[in-house]
Design goal:
The protein is an alpha/beta fold. The chain is built from 12 helices and 10 strands.
């Protein structure tokens, strides 16, 4: 820990003299707001990006103390908003939702994927940090069952993390190495996902899953866990499927096989997902919402400490 970090941050803020200071996620929300308070920033806005079940009592205490100096908390999903209202008692007038936005122009000219994949059958993709939160083990457990029905299927895992070694051991012990590809962290995840037929997101908790948004923008059907954060994005049977937390592995198997057996439905779900992105999750809609939030502040004569 750099003991002089806070002082340098305060110095930068005093030099720039912003009217609004907007921070994201716990660490920057904490130090950023403390620095902003000391530097005399009139308006503090903070963003929460996930259902942070990891927070202990002292994290919540810090949040509650700093909330007294905060004009607005912005969640990126209704599930995040509800979580923070219930766990930290944030009043309804102090918290709002602004969805993540997708720039669809980025998806018009995607560079060809540099990973060589022999496509004899379907391709299932997933991505994220290899942690328990992401639930990727359930997709791994589903693979042997899918291969019994569709032996040429390939499964691509984009990302890395502390569970990678155990995932690799699982693949070896179940003799499915020829069917599974671990890419590590990649900047060309859109190129990789563009090769896939189905995207699976088996997370146990989330905020607003960018992987699902990106999959929808690529016109891919998505299989995700039936948690509030994901259910905001996937309309079961329309642009993908929701699977129960009580039976994740078996339901993933059934849904993948069902989609492979019904390619027309697979295509229609992808088209439906794209329309949902256009209507609700465009980057322009996100920018407009942030502009509205900032304009609301600037149009009022706020006095420091009044909110």
């Amino acid at each position: 820990i750099d003991p002089f970090f806070l002082f340098r941050l305060i110095s930068v803020i005093r030099k720039e003299q912003p009217y609004i200071l907007h921070t994201f996620m716990f660490t920057s929300n904490t130090w950023g707001r403390i620095a902003g308070i000391i530097a005399g920033v009139p308006v503090l806005i903070t963003s929460e990006r996930c259902v942070d079940i990891w927070k202990r009592w002292y994290h919540k205490l810090i949040d509650k103390i700093l909330l007294r100096f905060t004009y607005k908390v912005i969640g990126n999903s209704n599930a995040v908003k509800k979580f923070y209202q219930e766990t930290e008692g944030i009043p309804a007038n102090k918290i709002t939702v602004i969805y993540n936005g997708i720039d669809l122009e980025e998806f018009q000219n995607i560079e060809p994927c540099t990973i060589e994949i022999e496509k004899k059958g379907g391709i299932v993709g997933t991505g994220g940090r290899f942690t328990e939160q992401k639930g990727l083990i359930y997709l791994l457990m589903a693979i042997p069952e899918v291969l019994k029905m569709f032996p040429d299927t390939k499964f691509i895992f984009v990302g890395d993390g502390p569970l990678r070694r155990s995932f690799e051991d699982f693949v070896k012990s179940h003799k499915i190495s020829d069917s599974v590809i671990f890419t590590g962290y990649r900047k060309d995840i859109l190129s990789i996902f563009s090769l896939c037929d189905v995207i699976v997101v088996p997370s146990l908790f989330e905020g607003m899953s960018n992987i699902i948004l990106e999959a929808m923008a690529l016109k891919k059907p998505v299989i995700g866990t039936n948690i509030p954060e994901i259910a905001e994005l996937i309309e079961d049977g329309k642009n993908g499927f929701l699977v129960s937390l009580q039976d994740i592995k078996d339901e993933i198997v059934k849904k993948i096989i069902f989609l492979f057996k019904n390619p027309d439905l697979c295509k229609n779900m992808g088209e439906n997902g794209y329309k949902i992105i256009q209507e609700r999750f465009s980057v322009s809609a996100m920018v407009n919402k942030y502009e509205e939030c900032y304009s609301e502040v600037l149009s009022c004569n706020f006095i420091k400490g009044q909110f």
